Fold this protein.
Amino acid sequence: MDRNLGLLLLLFAFFSLAACGRGEPLEITLPTPTPAPVNLARTALVSASRALPDQPLAMINDGIWSVPDANFWGSGDFPFQWVEFDLQTTASVERVELLISQSPAGNTVHEILGRTSPEEEWRLLERLTGRTADLETLVVEPEDPWQEIRFLRIETPVSPSWVSWGEVEIWGTPDDGIIPEVAVATATEPLPEGGPDLILVGGTVITVDAEFSIAEALAVDEGQIAAVGSIEAILALRGTDTRVVDLGGATVMPGIVDPHIHMIQHETPDVEAMAAAQQSLIESGRTTVGIPGIAPFNMEGFVSFADRVVIRIHLYIAYNSNCGDRPLPDYWRSFDFGQDPDDRLAVAGVKVFADGGSCNGPAVAWTYPDPLPEGIGFTDWVGNGSLYITADELAGVVLETGERGGQVVVHAAGERAITTALDGMEQAVGSGGNPQRHRMDHNDFVPLDQRTRYGELGVIPVVFGDYDSCFEPGGIWSLLAPPEALERLQHNRDLVEANSGLPIAWHADLPFTRIDIFAQLQMLANLAEVTEDGAYCDAPEFLADQGVGVEQAIRMMTWNAAYAMNLEAAIGSLEPGKRADLIIIEANPLELPEDGLFQNAVWATLIDGAVAHCGGPPELCDQFTP
């Protein structure tokens, strides 16, 4: 007899006699003993995704807390796998202990789910992530016991080895106080054959679809997005051929589309230099780029580089040079144009310089200072800049290029060039909707009376996010332009609001600005500059309200930029049927402070579902290794 219980009975007898001696009734309430928890796994009905004949389910709850002589349940396959316990009664679960059977050691994810009846949805009780090794023990003790649990399930979406457990113990007390009879069951449910190639779980998915939806998981199959949705819905698609990767809290978003760069352009064919430039772009998170102004010597390099192209590249043949001359007036007519996303390297159209910039000054509406201020870095910006083309001439190029399936990219920076280019576009496309997506790049000084013309014509403006706010309080243009001109400089928000429904895109114009996409995102969102050495400079007063915000900035760097390249049906957002061009980044930019968007990192870049770069933590990158 329990010593305490015996003492209570003795006291009961003593007070009973005393009460009888006085002729008074005695009422004593004895405390109800708290039932001790039992290992409910020992009597549970057990089922699993699969089991090897010599490592059956009976070994997962046989009470042997060791792994001698292969005394463990083994699925015989990599994730995704699960094991489920029917406790045969509802219970209050206080603790779960799991004996790991795993080789090699590595990053794993295990999720414990519970429900009261088969009709209910599973609810997540605990998620275990981290590095685990063979014979370690995982112990889960909730602060408050899990109530009314009959079915308890352990899912493993991530593991470096075949999924198995040496022993599982589920400690708790049955709600009815009755311990079920010992059950023996080894039901298994094999994964279906096939399945998507890749599933990403354990993070946030920014889809950049029309609603800017946020999802929990994503599936990739044969280079395309197969599905986007909840963890449960996506994991339900897994099959024998599926690799499940735990993001470890990272964020997935579409790969960056940069319609206007010059980084892979070389004056002489240098395949190794081009390969290094391409790798820098991939590591930066770019998956598609446009390279305008291709001359014969540039094309020679791209022909040599064609079999090493990984990133999607659209080339635009030079109609004229950056100084306005036409050394090869018919060169642009010698190409067939196209924007097929299946072509990693495509000749997509023609570039036309409407005014100066890198040679001569942009064609502005005022007169540049004479002499130019010291430190500007150029000497040929004189008068009111250089206009290189007439509206009639541009209209002819647009019409001929469009008839042959090409897109015209117009360099237009100053007011006079922008107005002339819009006049030429109007002659060419009129009210026809601009199906070839002819566009205008830079758009530094858009006259107030020209802002709405982009939307009216369907001509896409591709704008800078970058502004040199750290050069001095007003940036370099404050030394060159009068105050009234600064009031229309790079007014991106005003341009967006004036052209509702028109996808306005960004560009970096590399290598003339920073390659870091998060510095670019920062500048596009609020026009604050972040320098290479980490200096953060707020936008000057005349640009203080012209940032577009983080969500719009992400759109401009992904879907809108894809639209500007006639590729939005294939890339730019993470939607079923589109190419799996995506990046995995450390932090969710939607949750960062607006002045901290630049404090982020690209962990991995995937193009057509294949890993082109992984520089994140080993726990992430190792999961992509076969």
